[in-house]
Specification:
Helix content is 47%, strand content 16%. It is an alpha/beta fold. It folds into 2 domains: 135 residues, Bacterial extracellular solute-binding protein, family 7 (D-Maltodextrin-Binding Protein, domain 2), CATH 3.40.190; 172 residues, Bacterial extracellular solute-binding protein, family 7 (D-Maltodextrin-Binding Protein, domain 2). The N and C termini lie far apart (95 Å).
Length: 377
């Protein structure tokens, strides 16, 4: 009996200790989020994990993610905070959709072009042949298009904001000024741009941007389809020689995605505050890639690269070759039971709308590019 009483006493002490210890920590969640609160709950602090493939200090990390975090923390008086996990340290770019959906990260910067199978409708925003002449134009088109077709947002996610890394260019090791120059050349791209490059006679090679440097250094590819930002952010200035301006070839819809369970853990007042921040943030970042494009152009020319601009007649040849991509994409969506014709028509309308609305902006912005080229080339 004494032995039994001793065992019960020890067990009681252990259970009490375990209860006390568990009560001392923050309330953990399946997404790794922690909550702390003062009595009454009004000062509760919500801390979320934010993931991105971009390194710390990268233009996207600084201009899009750090600034968003700062805006939210200020607007919520510190009630919402973020732990930032850059350079794919928590979730790699190619796994971002699953990583945030499953709760490995609470939110993440997610190029939808990495996931054409999951977002066939939204990846119409990557279709080549449109005049994606500025990041501002493309960002507004992306936003309005997603709002017009909300049915493709996954149930387990909340979309915060979208932007665009347009306008596009080819960063190459060989000069390209005609369609004939493209033949036989291989270019890194997101898989959604395969048809566009192939229609022009080039060979697309699907890979993420972090893989591009090594592929260029080993002559696996001859260039990268993207914008001028990788010259700085991914050091491609070290192994490329030309910047070929081709806005008709490139746009994508990167989105800041949020795990729905994590989002719903926030009280309504904080959700509303963040929605307002998202609207302000979108306006602020819509021109960032235009600024980055100019800076990337300047940086490249300062480091010995040359820029190539297609003649008007040559550019029209490229546009004409790319029309088949629009038709094919609409047809493919229709076969999947999706509104392909409607989507492409909406896209045409939005591009034309913002070409007119931003005409003065485009003249001013293009003047900045020409000034850089005149000074450094």
């Amino acid at each position: 009996m004494k032995k039994k009483g001793l065992v019960l006493a020890v067990l009681t002490i252990f259970l009490v200790g375990l209860f006390v210890l568990s009560g001392c920590g923050g309330k953990g969640t399946e997404t790794g989020r922690e909550e702390t609160a003062e009595p009454g709950g009004e000062d509760k602090v919500y801390t979320f994990n934010l993931a991105s493939e971009t390194p710390e200090g990268h233009p996207i990390s600084v201009n899009f993610l750090d600034s968003w975090v700062d805006r939210i923390e200020k607007a919520t008086n510190g009630r919402v905070k973020f732990n930032k996990h850059y350079a794919g340290s928590l979730v790699e770019g190619g796994s971002m959709l699953q990583g945030v959906s499953s709760g490995i990260a609470d939110c993440g910067w997610c190029p939808l072009s990495y996931f054409p199978g999951e977002f066939p409708l939204y990846n119409a925003l990557c279709v080549t042949g449109y005049d994606w002449i500025s990041g501002r134009l493309a960002a507004y088109v992306n936003r309005d298009f997603i709002e017009a077709f909300p049915q493709e947002i996954p149930d387990e996610l909340e979309f915060m904001w979208v932007h665009s890394p347009a306008p596009g260019c080819l960063l190459t090791t060989k000069p390209v000024s005609t369609l004939e120059d493209l033949k036989g050349l291989q270019f890194r791209c997101d898989s959604v741009h395969n048809d566009g490059l192939a229609a022009l006679g080039a060979t697309p090679v699907a890979m993420t941007m972090p893989e591009a440097y090594e592929a260029l250094s080993k002559n696996i590819i001859d260039g990268v389809l993207g914008n001028t930002e990788p010259l700085i952010g991914w050091s491609l200035y070290e192994i490329t020689d030309y910047i070929v301006e081709v806005p008709c070839l490139y746009s994508t819809p990167p989105v800041l995605i949020f795990n729905k369970k994590s989002w719903n853990s926030l009280p309504p007042d904080l959700q509303e505050t963040i929605r307002k921040v998202n609207e302000e943030h979108f306006e602020a970042i819509s021109t960032v890639f235009d600024d980055i494009y100019v800076e990337g152009m300047k940086f490249g020319l300062e480091n010995g690269l040359k820029t190539i601009q297609l003649t008007d007649d040559e550019y029209e040849r490229w546009i004409e070759k790319l029309q088949v991509c629009k038709e094919k994409y609409a047809e493919d969506l229709n076969k999947k039971g999706l509104p392909g014709d409607e989507a492409i028509q909406k896209l045409e309308e939005l591009v034309q709308k913002y070409l007119v609305e931003f005409e003065d902006y485009h003249k001013e912005w293009r003047g900045r590019i020409e000034a850089v080229i005149a000074e450094y080339q």
